[in-house]
UniProtKB/TrEMBL annotation:
Residues 42-66 have a biased composition (Basic and acidic residues). It comes from the Bacteria. Residues 35-66 are annotated as: Disordered. It comes from Methylobacterium symbioticum. This is DUF1508 domain-containing protein.
Length: 66
């Protein structure tokens, strides 16, 4: 699952199930298509993983202005 939005360029967020059961999820952030950062823990739902990943992208974008 890949969300590419122009307001988060050059970052994109992937949220994927982890393990065989697929009951846990993790996110990864790509910058210009290359892996930039990955979640350090597994999340119980896809929605929670997506929310944490989106928050991290916002943090990265805000940091660009410094």
């Amino acid at each position: 699952m890949n969300d590419i939005q122009s307001d988060t360029y050059p970052f994109s967020l992937d949220v994927e199930p982890v393990g065989e059961s697929g009951s846990l999820f993790q996110w990864s952030i790509r910058k210009n298509g290359k892996l930039h950062q990955r979640s350090d823990r597994k999340h119980p739902t896809e929605a929670k993983a997506r929310a944490h990943g989106e928050a991290e992208i916002e943090r990265l974008i805000r940091g660009r202005g410094r």
